[in-house]
Structure formats: structure tokens, C-alpha cells
Design goal:
heterodimer; A: 299 residues; alpha+beta; 2 domains; three-stranded antiparallel sheet; 13 strands; B: 408 residues; ten-stranded antiparallel sheet; 15 helices; flat
Chain lengths: 299, 408
């Protein structure tokens, strides 16, 4: 029997999770502030109970997420399916700071998942910060310039909105290449080592897509054979390599990363865009900085 | 893949092989050997010991003979080009190490025998002589996977573009938008397949890809849809007259031009591995180099028993990397063991595929509930706790080890 949630289930579970998360956060803060270990017992007990409730409910949320076939590997033809909260942008799946996403069985050639999203009407109201990318899909040349990497763009409805997941695949899988944060999050799980030899494999890494490295000129990457596409609503997920019928070219919309919280939408402005904005031409230095910080964080 | 020494080449008359191997060297010729079908022998030279004295004293030839007589793996390599259709067979015998011995029949009735250090040495020489140089990536208009019948139709579409272009050149005609009449397209396909004319892509594919002839199933009319879907052909009507025609779309034109102007040869590889009393095909490949890219086609068996095609457009480096991977996997594999009751019992009930190990997300809360429910130890010193889940954070942590939230 399918455990997939309905839209109403998702709404109710999300509301309950928010309540528990709020309580848990307050208790954690209280515990962090507590200097006296002996007086913290009650708080710990409450935190434990709340964490357990949250964990149980979260399990229902994660198990109830619909698994959608989203993409196809351009090297093997294998379909990539993934559990995704496509009821709207209000769920914990889209919580930018601490996303809740179940484990997925992914093709061995899976490399990274980026994305964009075009809002249709007002976004759902949620206190969780959501960062689904710009309106218009883009690619990351630093990844596509590598011979072993190709990307596939597709499309799915997320509530009333239109999402554009962009999956990167690699064959063979490169080692020591910084990927990109999972779509809508501030991290990605690096199964290998981002710095072979000095950082052990298997850790979270934060490598945001910088605005200046986003390339919205998809046509040139399709012509180069590096970007393939899947037509909207194509249940067969047929890959296309040609440009003449590509529906993702020159889409209208903003090319700035947007944020959504409590029903408000705002975009990355020039000042807040990126800590590296002042050094936009730095290129590889950015990744050296990232590599250095990853090394420190892994200690 | 590397630098390798040129292999030694030995020439032996084909008619002498059975007696030389079986009588002089006392090597039984088993199935898998190129010489298996001629093992009964014919009229050999009168004094083999004297004729082949230097070979019979050469350890490298003796090794080649042992490999050639009793291989446990062999690769059929066919080539179609300016020399017509040629074929050689690579042999491997595991207890002789990584060496591979190639045998190729020559026009004068001789057999050329070469010994390579390993399969890589052979592939390197093949690449140097045959693969050409493609440095840039190219569009793949036939992304994986498509059915065998669909692939044949796509090859026929490319050939049809070439045909129309040649015809226009001969007639000094110019078409604003190149097309072929629908009736001609469909009717000419059977003729093309029957012709085995390796100057055309479709028959060349069937001629050089070992095993492809076995797959030559009937073509389903619905397979035609792939040509429209991938923009090889666009159905239309001729004006005036209303005759059904097929315009060449983006894929048909660009692949058509690529193969019209810069395709000269094609190659087929089939790797057969000993299994039980016979051999089983482990890989079937077709390679068509052009100036733009090198097309690698891999035939794969689908769950329903049909044949699927994985077509890629590679640079030379990518091709060699992929060939090394495919050959390496087969050459390195042990012979599959016959399952026994004991080994079945020991096997896990649901073995996970390698893909199952791959995860987009670290399995945090949902797969580690015990961790999530564990409160900070009572004796733990006061420290930092995750704002998201309350888990105690280690010093310098950038992310919570329990829920993965970024530390603020």
C-alpha cells in the first residue's frame, strides 16, 4: 500500500513539525545557555521527548513524499527518481538551512543536483526559508567544462510553481571536484573526498552556486553536447540533444537567486549576493578558499 | 592508455596450423580459437619442423600458440573501410597472464599472429591506426537508450540524407530544405540491409558488429516515431501534389552532414567469455569515427530480452577510457561460479546494487533514529548544541553530525 501523502497530509504534518521544531529549538537554546549541568536535566528530558516526537513525525513526512522520476542519465540511460515535496514550497524538504530529504537510490553516474524555479502566483506561507534558485534555469560552466560531466534539464510542477531541476552526471566519476549545493539547500553530501589525501571521504560540503558563475545561455551548452533536456510532462523522460525544439531556451523571468519566507519573496541583491562578490573574477581562488574551509570543518 | 612495445608478428600458413599446433606442439585446439573450425586439418607443408624451426624455438611464439589454441576469452574485431571487410580475433588464456594473441587471416593464405602485452596494448595500436582524432565533445542526437529497431531507422535516416545529397550533387540540384519521399525512405531500408554495402552506415553497422545480425528483428512501424521525436525527420507534404515527404530535421541534417563529409570506416568488437562448455557474449560494440566525434554504440540486453542501444559521441580520449573500462571489466572478471546450495544460503536475501550505496543526502534523521533520540550525555561538558535538532556539536563542526543542519 502506498504511504504517499496527500496535499492535506503534507499541510497538517508540516504544521505539526513546525510546532515541534520551534519547541525543540527553544529547548536546545535553553540547554546551550545552561551553565549548570545539574539544572539542565529537565530541559534535556523535554528536549529528548520533543526530539523523539519530531523524529517520528518526520519519518511520516519523509516516507510520505512522492517519488518522482525526474531525469535520465545521458551516459547510461538510467532513470533518476527521487522523493520530492512537490506539494508546494512550504515543506521541510525546501527548508534551506536544514532540509529534510530521504535517502534516494540514485544512478552511479549521479554527480550533483541544481535547479531553478518560477513562481506562479503567491508562494505558500511558511516560516522556513526557501531558496529555490532564480526563475530561469542555468548551468555551471566550471562543471560542464570537464569532459566527464554532462547535465540534463527537466521540469516538474511544485504546487502551482514550475521547477527546473538540473542534474549533473559524470562518467567516469571525478575525484576531488567540488560539486554544488543540492537544489534549495546550503550543502551537498560529498561521498568521496573534495580534497583527496587530506580530507577523508564522506562529509557535507557547502559550495553555493555564485551568481557570476551561472550561465543562462543554455543553447551554447546544448550545441556543445554537454547539456541535454527532457520535454515538460514527458512521462517517458526521453533525452534530447538537439536545440531546435528545446523549450528551456530564453525563458522569461529573473536571473537572480530568490528567497521566500513567510509569504515574502526577495532576490539576491548585489551587496548580499555572495561573500565572493567583491572578488568575482577570482575564479579558482574561490574554490581554493572553499577547499581550505572544508579542510578545517572536517577536523 | 600508455606506451607499449610493438608486438612480435609470426606468419604461419593457414594449412599448416592444425598439424603444427596439434602434432608438433601437442596442443588441442578448443572452441573459441580462431582455428577451431580448421582443426581437422588439410594438406600441410612436408617438413614442419624444418619450415618453422625458428618459431618452434621462440618462447614468445610458443606462448602465442598456447593462448591461440585454448582461449578462455576471445574478441572478434571487424573493420570496414577502404580494404573492405576484415576480421581478426584476439585470444586470452588466463593462465598465460595478461598477454593477448591476435590472429588474422591474410589474402595469401597466411595467418598473421601477434602477441600483445595485454588488451590495452592492442587497443592502443588499434586507436593509433584507426580511431582518428576527435578533441571536442559533440551533440548526441541519439541519447541512451533506444531500441535496436529505432537505431537502425536512425542510421537509415543518416544514409538517406547522404543519398539525397549525393543525388543533388550529381544533378547540380539545390534543395532549400532537404527531404526524401516517404515511400522511398521506407522502401529503400530493406534493400539497404540486404546489400551489406559497407559504404553505407546501416549495412556497415550490421556487417561489422558481431552479433548484430542475430538482433536483426522486425522493425516495428512505431519505431519510426523516434525519428520525429529526435528531430531526424519531419513529416510534410510536397507542394504541389501533396505527396508525403520527410524533411530532415536538425539531427538528420547535422548527423547527415557529419557522416557525408567525414566518415570513412567503422569497427565492431565482440568479447566472448568461456562459460560452462561454450562462450557467452559479454560486450558487443560498434565504433564509427568521424572528424567531429567518435560514435560508440553498445548493444545491451533489455529485461524483456530485446536489444537496446547505448549510443555516445566521444572524443578520442573518452573513447579510449570507455574501452578500457569495458574491456577491463570483462578481462578482470573471474569465470562465474556455478551457484551451490551452500553459497545460495550464505547470500544476502536482498543484495543491494552499487547504486543503492549512492545517496543524495547523508542518511540523517530518518535512518539514524537511535542517534536522533540520544540526548547529550549527562556528564558532557556544556558546549554548543544544534539549533535545529539539539544534538551536541563537536568542536569546529561546520554541520550538525546528526541532522546535517549548517551550524550558525
Amino acid at each position: 500500500m502506498s504511504n504517499t501523502m496527500t496535499a492535506a497530509d503534507q499541510k497538517n504534518i508540516t504544521a505539526a513539525l513546525l510546532d515541534l521544531a520551534d519547541r525543540r529549538m527553544r529547548l536546545a537554546a535553553e540547554l546551550s545557555a545552561s551553565e549548570e549541568e545539574t539544572g539542565a536535566g529537565d530541559v534535556r528530558e523535554q528536549l529528548e521527548k520533543t526530539a523523539a516526537e519530531f523524529s517520528d513525525l518526520l519519518g511520516r513526512y519523509l516516507n510520505g513524499l512522492p517519488v518522482r522520476p525526474l531525469s535520465r542519465c545521458p551516459f547510461t540511460g538510467e532513470v533518476l527518481s527521487m522523493a520530492v515535496d512537490d506539494f508546494g514550497l512550504n515543506g521541510f524538504f525546501w527548508n534551506n538551512d536544514a532540509p529534510k530529504r530521504p535517502r534516494n537510490r540514485l544512478p552511479e553516474t549521479y554527480f550533483a543536483m541544481d535547479g531553478a524555479l518560477k513562481l506562479s502566483g503567491k508562494p505558500e506561507i511558511s516560516p522556513l526559508l526557501c531558496c529555490p534558485g532564480p526563475d530561469v534555469p542555468y548551468v555551471l560552466p566550471r562543471l560542464l567544462r570537464r569532459r566527464e560531466i554532462k547535465a540534463v534539464i527537466s521540469c516538474l510542477k511544485i504546487g502551482a510553481h514550475t521547477g527546473y531541476p538540473i542534474f549533473y552526471y559524470a562518467d567516469p566519476m571525478p575525484d576531488g571536484v567540488l560539486r554544488v549545493n543540492d537544489w534549495g539547500t546550503e550543502r551537498y553530501w560529498e561521498p568521496g573526498s573534495p580534497v583527496p589525501g587530506s580530507v577523508p571521504p564522506g562529509l557535507y560540503v557547502d559550495v553555493p552556486a555564485r551568481p557570476e558563475e551561472m550561465d543562462f545561455d543554455l543553447a551554447s551548452w546544448i550545441r556543445a553536447g554537454k547539456l541535454l533536456w527532457i520535454a515538460p510532462e514527458d512521462a517517458a523522460l526521453t533525452l534530447h540533444g538537439g536545440i531546435s525544439r528545446c523549450p528551456y531556451l530564453d525563458l522569461p523571468g529573473s536571473r537572480k537567486v530568490k528567497y521566500i519566507q513567510n509569504g515574502e519573496v526577495w532576490e539576491d541583491d548585489e551587496e548580499k549576493a555572495s561573500p565572493y562578490a567583491e572578488n568575482a573574477e577570482a575564479g579558482e581562488e574561490h574554490f581554493e578558499e572553499q577547499t581550505e574551509s572544508i579542510g578545517k570543518g572536517a577536523k | 592508455m600508455g606506451t607499449h612495445q610493438e608486438p612480435s608478428v609470426f606468419i604461419v600458413k593457414q594449412a599448416d596450423i592444425p598439424a603444427l599446433f596439434q602434432k608438433e606442439l601437442r596442443l588441442e585446439i578448443t572452441s573459441g580459437s580462431l582455428f577451431y573450425t580448421i582443426r581437422q586439418g588439410g594438406a600441410a607443408s612436408s617438413n614442419l619442423k624444418k619450415t618453422y624451426a625458428s618459431l618452434l624455438a621462440d618462447p614468445e611464439f610458443l606462448r602465442a600458440a598456447r593462448i591461440l589454441a585454448q582461449p578462455d576469452l576471445y574478441v572478434t574485431v571487424r573493420a570496414a573501410g577502404i580494404k573492405g571487410l576484415t576480421e581478426l580475433r584476439l585470444h586470452r588464456r588466463k593462465d598465460e597472464g595478461a598477454y593477448v594473441a591476435a590472429a588474422e587471416a591474410m589474402e595469401d593464405g597466411g595467418i598473421a599472429i601477434s602477441v600483445f602485452d595485454d588488451y590495452r596494448a592492442y587497443l592502443d595500436r588499434w586507436a593509433r591506426d584507426s580511431a582518428g582524432t576527435a578533441d571536442e565533445t559533440a551533440v548526441n542526437y541519439l541519447p541512451p537508450k533506444i531500441r535496436f529497431g529505432e537505431f537502425l531507422l536512425a542510421l537509415h535516416a543518416i544514409d538517406s540524407f547522404r543519398l539525397v545529397s549525393y543525388r543533388n550533387m550529381l544533378d547540380h540540384a539545390f534543395m532549400e530544405r532537404t527531404y526524401i519521399k516517404t515511400a522511398e525512405f521506407t522502401q529503400s531500408m530493406a534493400d539497404s540491409i540486404r546489400s551489406l554495402d559497407i559504404r553505407w552506415l546501416l549495412p556497415a553497422f550490421l556487417a561489422v558488429t558481431p552479433g548484430a545480425e542475430e538482433c536483426r528483428a522486425k522493425i516495428d512501424p512505431k519505431d519510426l516515431a523516434v525519428l520525429m521525436e529526435q528531430d531526424f525527420l519531419v513529416p510534410s507534404k510536397l507542394s504541389p501534389g501533396g505527396e508525403d515527404i520527410l524533411y530532415f530535421g536538425e539531427a538528420g541534417q547535422l548527423m547527415g552532414v557529419e557522416f557525408l563529409r567525414s566518415w570513412f570506416s567503422s569497427f565492431g568488437f565482440e568479447i566472448q567469455v568461456a562459460e560452462g562448455t561454450g562462450f557467452t557474449a559479454a560486450e558487443r560494440l560498434f565504433i564509427a569515427p568521424t572528424l567531429l566525434s567518435i560514435r560508440l554504440v553498445r548493444l545491451e540486453t533489455a529485461e524483456d530480452g530485446g536489444v537496446m542501444v547505448n549510443h555516445q559521441a566521444y572524443t578520442t580520449d573518452q573513447l579510449m577510457q570507455k574501452l578500457d573500462e569495458l574491456f577491463g571489466a570483462v578481462f578482470a572478471a573471474e569465470r562465474p561460479a556455478v551457484p551451490t546450495a551452500a553459497s545460495d544460503a550464505a547470500a544476502p536475501s536482498e543484495p543491494l546494487s552499487p547504486a543503492a550505496e549512492t545517496s543524495l543526502e547523508k542518511p540523517a534523521e530518518e535512518t539514524a533514529p537511535a542517534q536522533a533520540k540520544t540526548p547529550p550525555a549527562a556528564s558532557a561538558p556544556a558546549g554548543r548544541f544544534c539549533w535545529n535538532c539539539g544534538h551536541k556539536l563537536s568542536d569546529n563542526a561546520a554541520f550538525c553530525a546528526n541532522c546535517g543542519a549548517k551550524v550558525k
